[in-house]
Each structure stands twice: as structure tokens, then as C-alpha cells.
Amino acid sequence: MSNRVIDFRSDTATRPSALMYEAMQEAPLGDDCKGDDPSVNLLQERVADLTGKEAALFFPSGTMSNCAALLTHCGRGDEYIVGETYHTYKYEGGGASALGGIFAHTLPVRDDGALALDDIRGAIRPDDAVYARSALLALENPTDGRPLSVETLAAMAGVARDGGLATHLDGARLYNASVALDTDLRDFAGHFESVSMCLSKGLGAPVGSVLSGGRDFIRECVRWRRKLGGGMRQAGVVAACGLVALDETPPLLAADHARARRLARELSDLAASLDAGRLKVADTATNMVFVYPREVSDFTGLVERARDSGIRIGGRDNFFRFVLHRDLGDDDVTHLLAIFSEYFNI
Ligand SMILES: *Cc1c(COP(=O)(O)O)cnc(C)c1O
User: Fold this and answer.
1) Which atom of ligand 1 is found nearest the CA of 201?
2) Average pLDDT score, the chain
3) Span 16-247: which CATH code?
4) pLDDT given for residue 175 in this prediction
5) How far is the centre of ligand 1, averaged over its atoms, from the C-alpha of 201 (Å)?
6) Would you state the pLDDT for residue 312?
7) pLDDT of residue 318
8) How is the chain split into domains, by residue range?
9) Pocket test for ligand 1, best of 12, 87, 148 (most atoms within 8 A of CB)
10) pTM attached to this predicted model
11) Is 305 helix (H, G, I), strand (E, B) or coil?
12) Is 198 touching ligand 1 by the criterion CB < 6 Å?
């Protein structure tokens, strides 16, 4: 493809595959606000089955899916416990607070991406009118590329359940965790009342997320989705891409992870030949590589240098986040590594 963009900024950059375009043309459609879209219904049944839940609901975005889950689990003035770097707290525009009057009780996130059990225990308020009511623990897996094991998730969810809280998992890239840890989606999902999964991230569909949970929970979420403006009418045209993504992409994820490991390894070698601390490379277990340059000028310099040779890279403030996905291959990783070598004169 001549107009191909080499984009390492996010796995949201993937273009629909040939089979996705075909599926869009052929998908049976109906008005999903009336529950009449066969493609949406099929996708919802499929994801409910994959996650071992009674029901599932299609959303235009993971942000809306998480928000509907929070609004359903929590009432006005209730508190949810969440990691201070997790997406539901940090990158969703404060929607749960703005729309639901829900209060976030944030906790520090450990190096492995988990929350400390004692921190969760300590954050659950006693049943006393002076406090906000603790209603929910919201976790994330993987978080910034780090996959959490079922045992780690179960321990955290167990503390919440013992305290009478509901549990939600933001599994935007749960398939990546599933492949990285060779763990069935159901084994992760089994410890949570609700699980949100993006089709538009590592799975490579252009749009959409699916929230799974119990039948009554999902019925309430349909009401919130309506209020949020997330009823999409003939949404089967995009749900069809999601169905193809669920078939096509999981077998490709191991290769994304291997490319991420190679990128991390070769960037580490490169960092070792520079001044100590000029470039720090984090370990990687899924499709993301985090690199921390000491100088902000190296960050901006490299972003510009890469753009000049047709590669989009980015991050936030002063770190790079390289995300591997189905539209990037070995040659693209080689190309990116060459830009780094050239920039640092190696
Ligand atoms: C992308 C993402 C979301 C939200 O998905 P959108 O579809 O972009 O709204 C939620 N959680 C995590 C961890 C994400 O990476």
C-alpha cells in the first residue's frame, strides 16, 4: 500500500483488514436501539461466551463502556477504588464524576501494575454516614503493557469482595494479557462482575468495545448507554469488523509481542553504548515498549527525525511508548531501530 502510515504510537492505528471490509458490506443489519441488529447481537453473544458472562453490550468506545460500568455499579456520592495511573481514572475525562457524581479513591500503582492488598483494604470505608460509601474496585489488565496474572487479580478482587464491593476490570487489551500469560479470558473475567474489552486496540478493529457481565447488570448498562448517547442504530456495520477481529487477530498477537521484545532488547543494547541513563528501556511482556530518554530534547528530536522518514512515534511528555500491532512487521521495527542508531550516531 503506497499511502501506508508506519505508526508506532498506538494499536488503534490499524486499518480494517480485507476481510473486515468484506464483512462490513455483507453484514446483516437492523436497528440496535431496538435490539434488532443481528451482527451486534452475534458479537455480544460471542464476547459474553468468550468471557464466561451471561450477557454483553456493544459500545462505541472503551471510555463509554467503562463509564457505563462505573455508573451502573456506583450511585451518586459513592466511591470507587482505582489505581492512580489507570485509564478509568486518569484518561476518561473524569466522566464518572461529571456524569454520575462518583468519587475516585486513588491508590498508588506498584511496579508490576497491581495495587497493594493492604492499600485496597485500607481504602474500603467503614459503613458510617461520615464517609462516602465504598462501592467498587476498578482494576486494569494489562496496565501500560504489563499483564497481571489471574492469581494477582484474584487476590485484589478477593479483598474487595470481602469488603462488600463490586469489581470491574478494564481489559482494553485483555487478549494481549491472555496470549502473554497463556490464560483463558474466562479465567481473568471470572473474578469480576464486569469486564470491558476493546476491539479497537490490539485486536485491530477500527471501532468499538464490549462490556460483559450478568444479565441484570447489562440491562442497566443499556439504560446508561442510552443516556450517554451510545445507541448506534445499524451498528452491525462496525460490529462485523469486531467479529472478524476476534477470528483473525488473536493468532497474530504472539508475533506482536515477539517484535516488542526484540525492539526492547535492541534498544537496551543501544542504550548500553550511550552515557549511563541517557536512555532507559523498560522490560516488556505484551505489545508495548516504554523508553525514557533523560533529555526532553532527545524525545522531541527523535519524534521529528522519525516523522521525516515516515514513521510516527510518540509518548507523553518525556517518554516514548512504542506499540506493536497487526499493521507493523519486522521491517518496520528494523526501520525504527535504524532511526535510533542514526540519531545517536551509533
Ligand atoms: C484505550 C483504553 C481504554 C478506552 O478505550 P477508547 O475506546 O479509546 O475509549 C480504556 N482502558 C485502557 C487501558 C485503554 O488503553
Assistant:
1) 1
2) 96
3) 3.40.640.10
4) 98
5) 8
6) 97
7) 82
8) 16-247, 252-343
9) 87
10) 0.96
11) helix
12) yes
